[in-house]
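Quick check before the chapter quiz. The format below is the same one you will see on the exam, so make sure you can read both the input and the output lines.
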Amino acid sequence: MHRPQITVFGGSGFIGRHIVRRLADRGAMVQVAVRDPIAAAFLKPMGDVGQIVPLFADVGIPESVASALAGSNAVINLVGILAPAGRNTFEHTQAIGAGNVARAAAVAGAKHLIHMSAIGANANGKAAYARTKGAGEEAVRAAFPQATILRPSVVFGPEDNFFNQFASLARLLPALPVFGGRNGPRFQPVYVSDVADAAVTAAFGDTAAGKTYELGGPRIYTFRQILERVLTDIGRRRPLISIPLGLAAIAGAMAQILPKPLLTRDQVLLMKRDNVVSQGALTLADLGIEATAAEAILPGYLRVYRRPRHRA
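Here is the expected output.
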């Protein structure tokens, strides 16, 4: 039986590793297109010998993109960044890169293209992250009209950089900040396994072609409620201090010069809007996926941040 071949750009990342495992379980030959194939070698044991192949590609270099997806039935683009670093800018990665992948997929005759965007993507947005995500969507639609676009809210799971970060800060800081007033913006955290299932469903079927889905969990939380959830799960008490977005923007402007900033000015701009599924949008349910509640998953991987029992 002929195995489908699927190329996953950014397949070694947080969401990518879950998608690669599922594709391998479905019998696909998986090409993991990344800038550092050696670092992606940990993915190989997820499939049979030779089933998962890391190879070099930079979405900003069209020739490498075309080479990486040649012969693939489906293409999944997960490449994105939370903060720019050097030439790895929002524009280079999320706008130009997205267009390069879509055009190459169209030329190669791929049947499916799944593009990972984000809730709030808007080509006219003030935040560079949202603006380039929106520009990337437009480039994808122009080159590959039947692409499936997935827009997740904040994605959680054992390797996430959201709940883990707050849990880590709670061990170090005497108090935690609530940006954006008393309660802050609202989020609809979505489980990484559900996001992976959505991408794989779109890659193996035709019903999602040409559609955009917004992926969120079953519950909406304010920023304050998220921090309260984290503190409950790690068994710690910390006061929560409300920080206006104006002050947060100043802190972000100073912090973003660091190699791995905890907050940037662009992220503060994003917090001016709620990160929740839009009314009337297609969702996980439309893909036949039941959203997983954060309360069922978070305690399992946040327990490493709990205070040791032998200490008071």
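If your answer matched, good. The two ends are 61 Å apart (CA to CA).
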